[in-house]
Structure formats: C-alpha cells, structure tokens
Design brief:
The chain has 55 residues and is of the alpha+beta class. The protein has a single domain, classed as Resolvase, N-terminal catalytic domain (Rossmann fold, 3-Layer(aba) Sandwich). The protein is built from three helices and three strands; from the N terminus they run H-E-H-H-E-E. The longest helix is centred in the middle third of the chain and has 13 residues. The chain is globular. This is Resolvase/invertase-type recombinase catalytic domain-containing protein. Pfam families: Resolvase. InterPro entries: Resolv_N (IPR006119), Resolvase-like_N_sf (IPR036162).
C-alpha cells in the first residue's frame, strides 16, 4: 500500500487507529512524513487525526 501511495494511486489512507497503521511510533512517523511529502493524507478514525489538517 505504501508503494501505491508513493506512486500516487492512493491519495488518502483511512486507518481505524494509529496502532493498526504501524507497529511502532517510529514507523508511524516515518510513513506519515513520507506520505505527507507525496501529498497523501492519513486519517486515523479512533484518534480523529488527519495528517493534512493545519492544527
């Protein structure tokens, strides 16, 4: 999925929670930064976090 995001086939990833997105915090931050740089948003439903929000 990450490769498809990088190729811009996907522009929004919806995850039930942060824990479902990545195994650990470091991986989560790394993927979130990589995807944001490619203009791919991530929405974490449980935490109500959207990576493209300004706040």
């Amino acid at each position: 999925m990450i490769e498809e995001c990088k190729a811009r086939y996907i522009d929004l990833v919806i995850a039930k929670s942060i824990s479902r997105f990545a195994r650990n915090t470091l991986d989560c931050l790394q993927y979130a930064r990589e995807l944001k740089a490619k203009q791919v948003a991530i929405y974490f439903e449980k935490e109500n976090i959207h990576t493209m929000d300004a706040s």
